[in-house]
Amino acid sequence: MASKPAPPLTRTQELWLLACAVLTLVPAIQPAPPWLAAALILALAWRAWLWWRRATLPPRWLLNLLVVAGSVGVFLTYRHLFGKDPGIALLILFLALKLLEMRRPRDGLAVIFLCYFLLLTHFLNAQGMEVAGLALAALVVITSALASLAHAGSGVLAQLRLAVLMLAQALPFMLVLFLLFPRVQGPLWGMPVDAYSGMTGLSESMSPGDISRLIQSGEIAFRVRFEGQIPPQPSLYWRGPVLGNFDGRSWRASLAREKVGLPDTATSQPVGYEITLEPHNKTWLFALEIPASLPAGASLSREYLIQARAPVRSRLRYAMQSSPGAGHDPGESAVSLRRYLSLPPNNPRTQALAQQWRREATDPEAVIRRMLEHFRQESFFYTLTPPLLGENSIDEFLFGTRRGFCEHYASAFTFTLRAAGIPARVVTGYQGGQRNPVDGYLIVRQSDAHAWAEAWLEGRGWVRVDPTAAIAPSRIEAGLASAMPASEALPFMVRADFSWLRQLRFRWEAVGNAWNQWVLGYDPQRQREVLSRLGMREPDWQAMAAAMATLCGLLLLALTAWALRKRIRLDPTQRAWNRLSRKLGRIGLARRPWEGPADYARRVAQARPELAQSIQAIAGLYVDLRYGKLNGDAPSQRLRGLVSGLDIAVSK
Amino acid sequence: MSNSPIDQAIRQAGRIVLGKERQIRLALVCLLARGHLLIEDLPGVGKTILAHVLARLLGLNFHRIQCTADMLPADIIGVSIYDRNSGGFQFHPGPIFAQVILVDEINRAMPKSQSALLEAMEEHQVTCEGETRPLPEPFFVIATQNPSHQIGTFPLPESQLDRFLMRIEMGYPDQAAERELLAGADRRDMMASLSPSMDPGELLELQQSVTEVHASEALIAYVQALAEHTRRSPDYDAGLSPRAALALLRAARAWALIDHRDLVLPEDIQAVLPAIAGHRLRPSSGMQTASSAEIAAALIAAVPLP
């Protein structure tokens, strides 16, 4: 049989292989360069068409040409052939072309191994639940294809069943390895990645229209799990970058990164919570005002912005404590305060108005009250679609358009205070959040982005003043949806209708969150938590490796026992018979598995005539016990005795 | 050697059909198990002699049907002819009304006739003009077919092949046997001198005692394991049917009986397996040309004794 050429692949096998290639390649299409994606789809369609029409495969010279052309294309795209992306591109190319010369089971095996390998590479680009789901489906199909190569004759369902059974047997091992394999700090699939440009979020500067653009995104900024009750909506100010420099149109963060210690928050009850921050490629970490603790490795700037050591490029989880009502005084000197008074020489009308108010007021707080009163009484509107503003943006806004979003109000407010001689700055961040009823997490989205002002008052330190609260109090109390007039087109995720759709989205996000928290976020710390809950306190890697080996061994034993469960139920007669075979096996006369007792006895008697008599007696008794009507313990015991008494001289 | 009627029959037959003891035994087993036998081989290797000898030794009457393409069912079963004297129809039984029937080259008969014959084999009776007539007991059909010239023939479909308990091949005699054959007297003259070893009554008794041979649970498990393997393994396009498993057990019982045992051993199963499974198993692509013996050997080696 071995010398014959292997039979060609059957149509069922080809279909399985095609299916596993399609499932493996579909997630690869999107990250691949466009020309490769197009070539890939063409190749798959071509192969499917050939299968359908039972046509012959393309000639070898054409395939060679395509290999060379594709490799040159990959080289031209990436400028080299090594590294992650060109490597994956080459693998994709080879898999697509291998399908076109897939004739015999050998080629099928090559396709299968390529598919298994390519499946892994998907996780280098994305690790979401949907990638994992697709990979699992592909895994089942690839294994079915493997089963179809091994069992060509059996039905499609039987092949699928075999694959699922095999994967089910692998599942406990996967769980043990996942839970116990010693983890390193950092994401599991950490790869040096260069492109973080597409991320949305707050930045170090703010111009009119920036935040109203940002809130159109329903993307999640971070998730929060509070230890107790979620504090009331109006106190949920998630502090982000503080912007102190103004050029008449844009606010920018000051570049000074002076570190301070944690403020004294002994007077108020701290709130404990844990934030899971989505990557935003910036160094700051969000927290409720005012932080009372710091995550490991982070520092606090003078502006009470928490800074991580490096930009957040993978999902980050950190525990925090904050005191929402605490004082807010890092001890500003006259020099540092001067920075918060500086003004560009524009917006003259606003400057004049502010100076007039300052002259008329008794103390700075009166100016603040007057300004808020002004917003409330004059016809200012809170809108997502404010008119565009020019060079003197504050003047245009305060005396002209009077329509704006939170950044317009915060900006105008801060400017006015500065003009009136009160140190002030703009704080950006998020306000509020939405509780996911499914898992109880508070979800803060980009659509919760907000900007407010802080003013320095002698004796009280920095005081938060949110002018938006004066224009549209419901924005702070109940969220964006209730603050907007009905005619405004709200971003989809903050709308109140489509409640079932929102329900669905909540559910999906809760599942996604669980995936992030427990699968992707399963870091050394989580591992310690889980293991200590399982009774392993302070495990080191040796203990984990030992536990892993033990559990895997036990699983193997269980699976073996399952496979051998028939053999265990052997009766004593059969055991004695098997023992005879083992005994005679020492002189090369073991029974063949299919050999009947009479044949066996004859063979042994022929090979070793001196044993003939005893072997005939044993075989005769065995035949009566196993195939005749003789039964009972006594004859079986006699058989055992005969087998034990058999004396075999090892050498002739 | 013992002197039971069966041993005598085997010995006597062996004197005429030289070097074919295994085939003689299998044919006897088939008869004792109340099955029918299909012999597939070239002309002139002793098929007819074997059938003839068996009939004679067992004291049974013998008919031969030479199949042709224009043979009609009535040529096998018989016809009713108007009898002027009695004024009614008189049934003239066809050649099928005998205890041992040799159907020569069954694949030359057209399907209609084949089917009439096979029906008679299955039912042990024939129906003609609305009247059902029982066939004599014991009733044993030996059919032959010639495998090499398939032009102008109607090969038996698998469902019909299944009606035969066994299919065996005669094969050429070995050198010694052939020399003896050439040197010896004419086989037909020798046959005339044969005396029956038993009468039909004894044969019926033997057929009855076949069913009483003990098959233990372990042995039945073995038969099951063999059948199960053919159904699961990708080496076969179609596995053994339950009817085939029954046939295997029945034939093994008969084999044990002619070996003077009252219990069936796995060796009995293995001995009859080629004749039972050869025409029922369809190996998948790679082994299409394998002989019955090769197919059975592969199957035996693949299934360990339970």
Characterization of the model:
The complex is a heterodimer of chains A (652) and B (306). With 652 residues, chain A is of the alpha+beta class. Among the domains of chain A are: 11-178, no CATH class; 524-565; 570-645, no CATH class. In chain A, α1 packs parallel to α5 (105-125), α2 (34-53) runs parallel beside α4 (84-99) and α21 (572-585) packs parallel to α24. The two termini of chain A are 38 Å apart. Chain B has two domains: 5-200, Rossmann fold; 211-302, Magnesium chelatase subunit I, C-Terminal domain (Helicase, Ruva Protein, domain 3). The two termini of chain B are 33 Å apart. The interface between A and B is medium-sized, with 20 and 27 residues.
Please tag this protein with its features:
heterodimer; A: 652 residues; alpha+beta; 7-stranded antiparallel sheet; 51% helix; B: 306 residues; alpha/beta; Rossmann fold; Helicase, Ruva Protein, domain 3; 5-stranded parallel sheet; two-stranded antiparallel sheet
Tell me, rounded to a whole number, the average pLDDT of chain B.
85
Report the portion of residues of chain B in β strands. Answer: 15-25%
The number of domains of chain B is 2
Note the gap between the termini of chain A: 38 Å
Instruction: Write down the overall geometry of chain A.
Output: elongated
**Radius of gyration of chain A, CA atoms, in whole angstroms:** 37 Å
The H-level CATH homologous superfamily of the largest domain in chain B, spelled out, is P-loop containing nucleotide triphosphate hydrolases
